[in-house]
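B., you asked whether I could sanity-check this one before it goes into the benchmark set. Here's the sequence:
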Amino acid sequence: MLRHTLRAAACVMALGLAAPAFAADKVPPIAFSQRTLANGMTVLTSRDTATPNVTVQMWYGVGSKDDPVGRSGFAHLFEHLMFKATKDFPAESVDRFTEDVGGNNNASTYDDFTNYYEVAPANHLERLIWMESERLGALVIDETNFKSERDVVKEELRQRVLADPYGRLFALYLPKASYQVHPYKRPGIGSIEELDAATLDDVRAFHHAYYRPDNVALVVVGNFDPAKLNAWIDKYMAPLANPAQAVSRVTAVEPPRLKAGTYTGYGPNVPLPAVVLSWLGAKAADPDAPALKVLDAILSSGKSSRLYDALVYDQQIAAEIYSNADLPQQPGSFVVGSIMASGHTVDEGEAALLAQVKRLRDAPPTAAELSEAQNELVAGKLRERETINGRGFALGYALRTEGDAARANSELQALQAVTAADVQRVAVKYLDPDRRMTIRYLPESARPKDQPAVEDKPPVVASVKYDGPVSQLAPEGQRQAPPPIAAPVTPILPKPMEKTLANGLRVIVAKSSDLPLVSANLTVRAGAWVDPGGLAGAAGMTADMLTEGTKTRGAQQIARETEALGATLDSGGGQEAATIGLNVMPGRLDQAMAIMADVVRNPAFAKAELERQRSQTLDGLSVSFSEPGQLAAFATAPALYAGTAFGHVAGGTPASIAKFQAADLARIHATYYRPDSAILVMTGDITPEQGFALAEKAFGSWAKPATPAPDQPVIAPQTAPRAIAIDLPGTGQAAVTLAKVAIARDAADYYPGIVANSVLGGGYSARLNAEIRVKRGLSYGANSSLTARRSTGLFRAAAQTKNPSATQVLDLITAEMTRLGAEPASPEELKARKSVLIGGFGRSLETTDGLAGILGNLALYNLPLSEFNAYTGKVDAVTPSEVQAFAKAHLDPAGATVIIAGDGTGFLDSLKAERPNLEVIPAASLDLDQPGLTKPK
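And here's what the prediction gave me:
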């Protein structure tokens, strides 16, 4: 995980009328127990008997700041190595213990810590505790695993840093320019040169120094028996010993910044310039931290924020704005920044950002701004606590950054105690314009000719000599067997109830939680299929414009009123439907639904707002067109569905977006936004009776037109498979995609289809990722997806890789698709991949938004709500022969369209040799409005 991923595009929703701030006690505290083992390990546990799952997390006190000099990226490299072998289980077994039983796992590296976390059915808890003790006490670090994961990390770096137009800015230039001395200045993901310089001894020494019981906290949240859990912890964790030497800690102190500075960085494929202003800041435990968080929210949280309001909405000089109070374990930073809108300069951006900083230094925020920011922060903490994983993260993060897990609860009171004077005080204290660092980010073409590109050379450091203990994988007959699996915990599914209002609006309500949150999700059958000819993206823009002004509320008023309630309100369009989503505390639901109903029923489509949306969308596209993965995705629909209502880019193209008129959007709204074509789903802390009454109040007077609703056409594409290469010079990776027309949602083989996709590419231990990432280190991740729609669908397999490996990755994807249809999957593999589907389905029910999405999709495709309860049984019933038959019928790669976007100098020759019919399209000549994808000559 990269430390400075700050691109938080202004897309959250809302601005603020004065509303009373939530009392912090409206958010239930996380009840937890804490103890310390004799070996120094901290143990935090929190019981929740309402879930059938459990999360086990290990929070190690080692992060990117602890990387040895000349070995940046080591902490992150270990995030990967910890998923390999131990003395008692071979590589990739972590996924056998988690993903293959219906759970999931992941890890992330921060400046100050590395955390590993699993969510799995609660009956696997003892096995997870044992597994984590093995990873801590007996990790196998050998040459094979080291080199394999080092290659994967390089691909992650290429994908996140080199292929992303703004990856260099946030991952490399911002930390480098912000710090002079403290190791926070180094990139957490490392560098290819320093990773290549590392040796096996270096890696083993790093592990021995930091992966030890007295440097880790074990966090367990979920459904468990406390006595049994404590006994397992005492059995598996307590015997682990620490090395003799103490843990080495970073003692560097960043000197005060005494004057302003400027750093200019360049990157290829940078469509819009960017500017970031950085100041030295506070640490997480500092008494100023709560006020800095509120300051951050006032500046950039949503459309009511000062930066969005000034730079994006009023002045229209920025495509994206952001701020971030980076409050790590040791003093961090505070940044504000913007990606400039087309035609605007970083000088304009710097001046505008400084003007907003000056406003907060010169005068305190208004009472309405303060209340709104606090409401947003508290509501965000509440949403974090919807899942057991989120609660575990809150405890671990507070412990690692502030030294006290209880701060996860007291933080809420601290945020609510912040005054307007506090916000002004910290702005004055930390955001002195004479101590700022200005980071300017420009396209490579803007580099002065007398200033050649010179990359920093990493320090040359001799490798260490490690002579400590080394673990090896025991012979198969000598390995300790994992603990047994306990009896399963039966999940309790919510019971959806439904009612159709007199105007035809279908309302579905499911009480799913006692946590004070409610989701209201309105789905309207008005997706990209309704786009008029030549106006690709019109339906999507219609949906986007709903929250940009009604006949009685302006865009800023909608945003102010929504955010003042601590709510999120968003709208957007897809291929088949538009959705309007609301998430709010139940006490504010009545007020929030009145706003929701207004934006759905009475949008104004004001010309000035359309021009703002048009400009922002075009700027967003210019960024997306510089990312190989996005470019390949955009080309998929025109290549696959040409000649049908799906045969265009759902979000629009530069040419089509330029044509939109307010009348076009108003016509789509008048035709398709009607109650008898809509579904309202309400989930969370709400009873059916309450939901039906609120639906009637907000939408009961929505009139149904006299004419029947238009029918969605049957999508039956007849295109031949194509091989397309989009040449994007200078990009750090190639995106490889194979796509095919797939099945309808009501197809008889839908369940065999989703199981087949799970086997092929539906997770870390699926076949594509195993072959491409795990075995060969060619990609950060390879996957596939099966999207079943009303009359047809989409299958897509994809991976990003270094440009010279693109043809090899294409061959591997093709081979796995062929193999799936040629031979049946084993019962063991099928059982594991079914568990992935069932477990993912169960985890999606943990959040109100997730449950609302599932129920809304069933209703959209006219499927009975009983499918909700039947899902697990239908997945379980799929046989190996059904999976093979589906793959043979629908996943034959011979009928797939191939799209590869990347720097063609690395792969075009090999690809042409393999695909003689290859169409090579320079990115500058790409025309997504044409069936041939090229501009007419």
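One thing to flag: The radius of gyration is 27 Å. Otherwise nothing jumped out at me.
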